[in-house]
Amino acid sequence: MPLRLSRHRTRSALTALLMLGSATASGQDGDEKNPFADPDMQPSYQARCHEVRALTKDRETGATRVDFSVTGPLALVHFDGTLAYLGLCGTEPDPKVLCVTYQTNDMKVGDLVTVAGGYSRPNPDFIVLDPCLAQRPEELAQ
Question: Where does the record locate the signal sequence feature (predicted)?
Answer without folding.
Answer: 1-27
